[in-house]
Amino acid sequence: MAGGAFVDSGVGAKDYPGKLTLYVFLSCVVAATGGLIFGYDIGISGGVTSMDSFLKKFFPSVYDKEQADTETNQYCKFDSQLLTTFTSSLYLAALISSFFAATVTRVFGRKWSMFGGGITFLMGAALNGFAKNVLMLIFGRILLGVGVGFANQSVPVYLSEMAPARLRGMLNIGFQLMITIGILAANLINYGTSKIKGGWGWRVSLALAAVPAGIITIGSLFLPDTPNSLIDRGHDEAARKMLHRIRGTDDIDEEYNDLVAASNDSKLVEHPWSNILRPKYRAQLTMAIMIPFFQQLTGINVIMFYAPVLFKTIGFGSDASLISAVITGLVNVFATLVSVFTVDKFGRRKLFLQGGSQMLVCQIVVGTMIAIKLGTSGEGSFGKTYAGFLVAFICLYVAGFAWSWGPLGWLVPSEIFPLEIRSAGQSINVSVNMLFTFIIAQAFLSMLCHFKFALFYFFGGWVFIMTTFIAFFLPETKNVPIEEMILVWKAHWFWGRYIADSDIHVGKNFEMANSKAKNVDV
Ligand code: BGC
């Protein structure tokens, strides 16, 4: 692969003994439910803020403006900054809280961050469900955001550490699968509650966030901590027992020794935040910033947040647009399953490259189809068949995201950092993700109004850039033990130069691995 520095899991691909035990599987399923709260929130906000009773109670000025709106330009119909500020305030809270979560995750263990996330989200759900005024509503949203920050910081790391290397992708993607299930559940619930006469449907939608929050809060109490975290916090014997239990074999010495070596390195690092800037972490730091940035620049949340608005723009009625949102929600869940079953076989890079190409083609088609009918004036409408094709291409785009940037945007950053800065690295990933989710949520409506159909070309341009970036700069990480990941970076044509041989203390077979690495397909 030209320039790809494709390291096909030859490096450090030591296969530790052990199998996928039921214990690990169940622990990962429970931890992954942390994704439900994030997904539920993504799915619920758009629907609630389009319910008249909700707007009348909390945002009467927005409601009045909407009623008086006689705009015929389809691109510029729904612009309301106040409302988007409310929706996206959660992402700012999540951004800030993920930095605090980094410390909790490192010092107290992964499970307590998950517990903290669940309980704060629970409080937020209660405040929102019973909200009497805007203050309660906003305070509730901040608590929800703190919950998301903690869960998204700790769950992916937990899953990547718990899983046996050769199944790490599959188990980690459980998190994204739960996100998509949360989104779909929220869309369905909104559909039901919007029909409640009496104007309190929105309360049900908001309060039901307590269900996923309850699941992860209670679930996390039963979770064991990861051996990596136990060793790092000085509980060596407990870590050995845990490794024994989760791998289901007595033959754990090799993996245990690698964890100890990683932990010894980790102890030399007192301040993860200043260390992360050192050249030897340049590759991982770049990925922790670029991957979430690119994930949001795919434009996926335009569909997730604004599907009802978007489908209305395309000319669907109110009900039909909600149903279309449910369709994209279903595609999102099922297409994620594709990555669950292929990510450890085909690898991360193939999914990234295929998914990216598919999204790009769909964005060009969707942009062009809208341009043909609405032009730059935004006046016009779509026939039934035409609109059907448009929805089909939007679904293909969502599918491409759902087996590439969606799951891999959480998997890859959680598996590439060495132990000493893993927690800090993951919180950078979360905060960059939240920052750009916020910016896009905030800017989308006015972008649609100004860019018109070219908005799809705009995101398509980014998808082209990110796919090229992956082709050149991301080495394959499938099947590589998490504490040996440095070998993969060392073997990369570009990043290798930042890592000295003396920086590498893991992998007994490093010499051998290194010589294998020289045979990489570049
Ligand atoms: C992203 C979210 C997005 C969701 C859609 C996640 O991986 O972080 O921003 O809404 O996927 O399924």
UniProtKB/TrEMBL annotation:
Domain of life where this protein originates: Eukaryota
Annotated compartments: Membrane
Keywords: Membrane, Sugar transport, Symport, Transmembrane, Transmembrane helix, Transport
InterPro entries: MFS_dom, MFS_STP/MST-like_plant, MFS_sugar_transport-like, MFS_trans_sf, STP/PLT_plant, Sugar/inositol_transpt, Sugar_transporter_CS
Transmembrane feature ranges: 20-40, 90-109, 130-151, 171-192, 204-223, 287-310, 322-343, 355-374, 386-406, 426-448, 455-474
SUPFAM superfamilies: MFS general substrate transporter
Membrane association type: Multi-pass membrane protein
Domain Major facilitator superfamily (MFS) profile: 27-478
One annotated GO molecular function: symporter activity
One cellular-component annotation, GO: membrane
CDD domains: MFS_STP (cd17361)
Family indicated by similarity: Belongs to the major facilitator superfamily. Sugar transporter (TC 2.A.1.1) family.
Classification via PANTHER family: SOLUTE CARRIER FAMILY 2, FACILITATED GLUCOSE TRANSPORTER, SUGAR TRANSPORT PROTEIN 1
Protein name per UniProt: Sugar carrier protein C-like protein
Organism phylogeny: Eukaryota, Viridiplantae, Streptophyta, Embryophyta, Tracheophyta
